[in-house]
Write a structure and sequence with these properties.
Blueprint (H helix, E strand, L loop, with lengths): L1 E9 L17 H13 L6 E2 L8 E11 L5 H9 L6 E9 L11 E10 L12 E3 L5 H8 L4 E4 L14 E12 L2 E8 L6 H13 L7 H8 L14 E7 L21
Parallel strand pairs: 3-10, 5-6
Antiparallel strand pairs: 1-3, 1-4, 2-3, 5-9, 5-10, 7-8, 8-9
């Protein structure tokens, strides 16, 4: 039995997130498992580095599966990609020992959220970015983004349906960078709660529209109540871009996806 790690790129617009849902509800995981099972000639169970919300995208979602089937790496990738829908693609594959686990061995995860700030909505970027037509106070938003760095109780920033046992997370960085009409939020943490990134973005957008001052973020944290925070930002602009593992696993670190996902922070 050989364990394989794979890097997956997907456009989540037509899926109810990464994780397999009830029958009849399309998910990225279930779609991949069905095709992997055909190529492997046996039922394959896929384990991902994390979950994503409905309609959220990924450029390098890490997952693993086990198979006794003898295939070359190229045969795995070409065999699966040729049968997958065009909005999902395996980008790389690596043989691992059984100590590796895509979810439990991950030490950090990283997302980017892309805002297109312009008077008119984009057509070619539809469902790939979140359009905001209001004028935004970007320096104020950048100051507010720093409030999320460090170890905090994110109770106010998680969905009511969140299944995590506890809301404390350590955010390594939360950086908002303008690139012309684009605003890119880059955030890395040891883990994320349900809707956490989208709720953070929702608060930052309200700060940018001068709905309240930067210091109000502290009040939201202290409340430990979802009702104290702002609206949940749309899923369109959110991308899972990387999971990090101990160096011993030596997984590929490949820059994928649209240009805004590779801009420096």
């Amino acid at each position: 039995m050989q364990r394989y790690a794979i890097g997956i790129e997907f456009c989540g617009t037509h899926y109810r997130g990464w994780q397999t849902q009830q029958e009849g509800v399309p998910s990225v995981q279930q779609t991949l498992e069905e095709i992997l099972s055909k190529v492997a000639n046996h039922a394959v169970q896929l384990h991902g580095a994390g979950r994503t919300d409905a309609q959220v995208h990924a450029t390098n979602m890490i997952a693993h599966f086990d198979s006794p089937s003898e295939r070359t790496d190229r045969s795995w990738i070409m065999g699966v990609n040729s049968q997958l829908p065009k909005d999902i693609s395996i980008q790389w594959i690596k043989r691992m020992d059984t100590e590796f686990h895509a979810r439990f061995k991950a030490i950090a995860r990283r997302y980017r959220y892309v805002i297109y700030n312009a008077p008119q909505r984009p057509a070619l970027l539809n469902k790939q970015v979140t359009h905001v037509y209001h004028e935004l106070d970007i320096p104020k938003m950048q100051e507010a983004a720093k409030k999320f760095e460090g170890t905090h109780n994110f109770e106010s920033f998680r969905a009511a349906a969140c299944q995590s046992n506890q809301p404390v997370r350590h955010v390594k960085h939360c950086t908002l960078t303008p690139h012309g009409p684009f605003l890119v939020l880059d955030i890395q943490a040891d883990g994320f709660l349900h809707h956490m990134v989208r709720n953070i973005v929702g608060c930052l957008l309200e700060v940018g529209q001068n709905c309240y001052d930067v210091e109000h973020i502290d009040t939201i944290f202290a409340a430990q109540d979802r009702k104290a925070a702002g609206v949940t930002a749309p899923p369109d602009g959110l991308y899972f871009i990387q999971a990090y593992y101990p160096e011993q696993f030596q997984l590929p670190n490949i820059a994928l996806g649209p240009q805004w996902l590779n801009w420096p922070i």
